[in-house]
Design a protein that fits this description.
Blueprint: E1 9-13, H1 17-26, E2 32-37, E3 50-53, H2 63-69, E4 74-79, E5 83-88, E6 98-103, E7 126-131, E8 135-140, E9 145-150, H3 165-168, E10 176-178, E11 182-186, E12 192-196, H4 210-213, E13 219-222, E14 226-230, E15 235-243, E16 246-251, E17 261-265, E18 268-272
Length: 273
């Protein structure tokens, strides 16, 4: 990806005090921030030129669209820029444990691109999604496994499953993300577990340890420059860096004057507080 951090456009639902604090930090990086809030006098209203008054339920893909499709408990999602795939954990309605597909431009459903074989494959509590455009991988929080499917037709590709999560201590897999070589998996601990994408082998040398994250990890996503981590309460961002083939990072939306030190531990040269 060739774009810089200054090319990012960030949308925030809700213009309260937390949004205000985030914008005040993001201004230092010239980030393009847009806010949607139902109140014209929200704390963020005067901090960005891109403030819009509107209901937070006015989404591109409406909630009733998902519900009518049977997508009643949407969790992980992934997009190729044209389509968006949403994994559904039906909470007891096993027939609806599937990956739904929608056209990104207008939110219309595309049944031909959906994957309906999760339960048949043994994936009964699907959580996270990630794809390289060819294979789509699904984390299962109960089976402690990554299931693989061919994106184009939804067929199983069991040869690309990752079955070694338990032995690695990666016992509650949630979010998935890869830069194309290493697959990172969160598991509600303050650590991201690393596996070789091509064969699924464990690659502990590229783990991102708690010394850097210091928060519980659930959802993860990156543009290869910044890593966003959802801990179930909010989202924290980290700057990713490449040093001698290892991934490292530092807190992204924090004070520029924070002291930086290097720690030669499992994620290579980790830069932290």
């Amino acid at each position: 990806m060739s774009e810089s951090i200054n090319d990012l456009k960030i949308g925030v639902l809700g213009g309260g005090q937390l949004g205000r604090m985030m914008i005040q930090s993001a201004i230092n990086y010239n980030l393009d921030i847009s806010i949607l809030d139902p109140h014209s006098n929200a704390p963020c209203a005067h901090l960005t030129a891109n403030f819009q008054v509107g209901r937070l339920t006015d989404r591109d893909i409406k909630q009733d669209t998902l519900s009518n499709a049977g997508n009643t408990n949407p969790l992980g999602l992934w997009s190729d820029g044209t389509m968006i795939w949403v994994v559904n954990n039906a909470s007891g309605e096993s027939s609806s444990d599937k990956i739904f597909a929608y056209t990104l431009a207008d939110g219309s459903r595309d049944k031909d691109k959906e994957i309906n074989t999760l339960n048949a494959a043994g994936s009964n509590v699907p959580i996270g999604l990630w794809s390289d455009g060819t294979t789509i991988r699904v984390s299962d929080i109960v089976e402690d496994k990554i299931f693989a499917y061919t994106l184009s037709d939804g067929s199983r590709d069991a040869a690309k499953d990752i079955n070694t999560l338990n032995s690695a201590g990666n016992n509650r897999p949630n979010g998935l993300w890869s830069e194309g070589t290493t697959l990172y998996i969160s598991d509600r601990s303050s650590k991201l577990f690393a596996y070789t994408l091509s064969g699924g082998a464990r690659n502990a040398a590229r783990d991102i340890e708690s010394i850097t994250l210091k928060i519980t990890t659930i959802g993860i996503w990156s543009d290869k420059t910044t890593l966003w981590v959802n801990n179930g309460v909010g989202v924290r961002a980290f700057r990713l860096e490449q040093q001698e083939g290892f991934v490292s990072m530092r807190d992204f939306l924090s004070n520029n004057n924070r002291s930086v030190r290097k720690n030669n531990r499992s994620a290579g040269s980790i830069i932290s507080k």
